[in-house]
Amino acid sequence: MRRVLWCAVAVGVFLAAGVAGLYIGRASARLQRADVSQARLDAARKAWKSGAYPDVVRLLGAVPDSSSFAAQARFLEGRSLWKMNRWQAAEEAWQRALELDPLVPEAVSGLLDLYFVEQRSAEAERLCVHHYPIEPDPHDRTLLLLELVRQDAEQLNPGDAARLLEPIVTLEPENYHAVRVLGRCYVQLGRVSEGLALVKRAIGMRPEDTEAWFTLVWCLSEGGSDRLGGVWDRLPAGALDEARFLRCRGIWAEASGDPDEARRACESALARDPYDRKAHYQLARLLRRGGETVAAEQHEAATQRLDDARELLGACYTQARQQQDEPAPELCDEFRRLCHVLGRTAQADLWAQEAERRGAAKPPETARDTRRSASPPLPRPTERIACRRVA
Q: Is 272:242 a contact under the CB 8 Å cutoff?
C-alpha cells in the first residue's frame, strides 16, 4: 500500500512538473517573440531614418498582429508605404494600427493627409468625429477639428492634386480613390478624354459604389456634355436618392430645355440636403426666370448665407492659427455657429464642447440657431464682425 502511494505521489509530481514546464516554455516563447518584434521595430526605425523605406516594410511585415508592438509596427509600415507612393497599402496599415490601438494619433494624421489629397471629406469627418472623444490630449482633440476646417479652406488645385496622384496610380493601378480623383483632375485641366477614361475605370472597380458614378456625373455636368442623358438609367440603386445626383440632374434638365424637371430635381435635392448651396443657386435661377421673385429671393439669400459662412469659417481658421491652434472660447463658439449654419452638425456639437471646456458661456439652444439661419444673410467676411480677434 505504501509502495502504491509513493508511486502515485511520484506520478503527480512528474505531471505537475510537466505542466509547469509547459507554461514556462510558452512564457519563454512569448518573451522570445516579443524580443524579436522589438528588435525588428528598432531596426525598422533606423532604416526609416536612413530613408530605406522598402527595408522598413520588409522588417515590419514579419511583426505579427499578436505582438505588443504591432500597432507601432503597422503605423511605421504605413508611413513607409506612403513614402513609397503605395497609398492604398498605407491606408490599410494605418487602419489596422487603429484597430489594434485606437490611441495611435500618428495613424489618424496619416489617414487625414490621404483623405485630403483624395478628396474624401466625408471619411475625414467620420474619422475625426469618431476619434475626438477617445483622444486623451485636449490639444490634439482641437487639432482634429481644425484639420477638418483646414481641409475645406485649403483644397488642392487640380494641377497639384494630379501631380501627387499620378505616381500613385502608376504603382497602384487598382487604387479606386486615386484613379477616380485623378480622372476628375484631368477633366478640370482640360484633359477630358483621359479623365473620363480613368473615372470609368474606377466605376469598373466598384460598380455599385456611388462615388465614382457621381464623379462621372459631375464631370459630364460641368462640361455641359450631352452624354449625361444616357447615364441616369445606369446609376446604381439609391443614387438618385442622394441630393448631389438630383442637383446635377436639375442642371442637366435645364440645359436640355426642361425647366419643370429641373425645378423638381432641385427641390428634391434640397428636401434631402437643405444646405446644398449649388441646389439653392440653381433653383433661385429657375424661379426667377419663372417670375416667382419672392421664392427666388429666399433661395438667393440661402446661397449667400452659405457662401458667407464658409468664407467666415476660413477666416476663423486663420485666427485659430494665429492663436497657436488654441482658439479662444469665443472663437470656438463662432466655429460652432458657422458649422451649424453649414449643416455640419457633428462638428458643431464638438466645437460646442471645445467652447465650454475653454470657458465660454453655454452655447445658444438649437432653436435659436434655427431662427438665426432663417435670418438675413451674414455680414460680409471683409467686415470680420463674427471673427474679431479675441484678446
A: yes
Give the three-class secondary structure for 337.
helix
Residue 228's pLDDT is what?
Answer: 86
Per-residue confidence (pLDDT) for residue 230, from 0 to 100: 87
First to last CA, the chain: 93
Q: Quickly count: other Cβ atoms within 10 Å of residue 128's Cβ.
A: 25
Cβ-in-10-Å burial (0-12, 13-18, 19+) of 278 comes to middle
Query: Which parts of the chain sit beneath pLDDT 70?
Result: 1-35, 223-225, 360-391
The reported pLDDT for the residue numbered 242 is 96
| Distance from C-alpha of 347 to C-alpha of 344, rounded to nearest angstrom | 6
Long-range contact set of residues 179-184: C-beta below 8 Å, sequence gap at least 24: 179/205, 180/211, 180/212, 180/215, 181/117, 181/118, 181/119, 181/215, 183/215, 183/219, 184/119, 184/158, 184/215, 184/218, 184/219
How far is Cα 263 from Cα 271, in angstroms, rounded to an integer? Answer: 12
Task: Encode pLDDT of 308-344 as tens digits.
Answer: 999 999 999 999 999 999 999 999 999 999 999 999 9
Count CB-CB contacts under 10 A for residue 376: 8
Cell, residue 232: 441616369
Tell me, what's the pLDDT at 364? 53
DSSP 344: -
Query: What DSSP string describes 139-168?
Result: HHHHHHHHHHHHHHHSPPPHHHHHHHHHHH
Question: In one letter, which amino acid is 378?
Answer: L
> Which positions ≥6 away from 206 have C-beta within 8 Å?
176, 212
Span 132-147, pLDDT tens digits: 999 999 999 999 999 9
Q: What count of Cα atoms within 13 Å lies in the side-chain half-sphere of residue 312?
A: 29
Tell me how far CA of residue 202 lies from CA of 178, 181, 196, 240, in angstroms. 9, 9, 10, 19
138-153 helix and 293-322 helix, angle to the nearest 10 degrees = 130
Collect all residues with Cβ–Cβ distance below 8 Å to 333 and sequence separation of at least 6: 351, 352, 355, 360, 361, 363
- pLDDT reported for residue 34: 52
